[in-house]
Amino acid sequence: MRLVPSPWNRTAFLDALGQWRGRSIELMPVDSTLLPGTLDSGRGTPCGLWLDCTDVDVIAFVAGTTDFHIDQIIAHEVGHMVLDHDAGVAGLAGVQRLLPNLDPALIRRVLGRSEFLDEQEDEAEQFGDLLLSGVSRWRASRPMRSFWGGDG
Hints:
Layout: H1 10-21, E1 24-30, E2 48-53, E3 56-62, H2 67-82, H3 92-98, E4 107-113, H4 119-133, H5 142-147
Parallel strand pairs: 1-3
Antiparallel strand pairs: 2-3, 2-4
């Protein structure tokens, strides 16, 4: 199974990732005015969140942002998944306000893309950058395609 399609295709990637993880990946655009205060104080305002629920992974992102930014948020949150980062349910109260229809009992972990001041956030951001660098339609330089094993 080819997990990361080249050229980049968000839907194909999320379908393959969900198959690999054995659970669906759902994207959820959210109103940016609801994001401040979602995470614990001192963590900044997230532009994306990963909710590790019992039977689905939810990636929330700011509604109305660019496709480029959505892809970067997805890649960052996938970094948290693949690297098995854990922040527990810190920020769950903010998530309940943001997504009132989601049963909090189903949420096992909450991680958000905000400030990159801790090791997990920095690792996830680097993962996302690397994931997209070789397949992104915006960064498809010949040297990068060659480096990642594509047609050079």
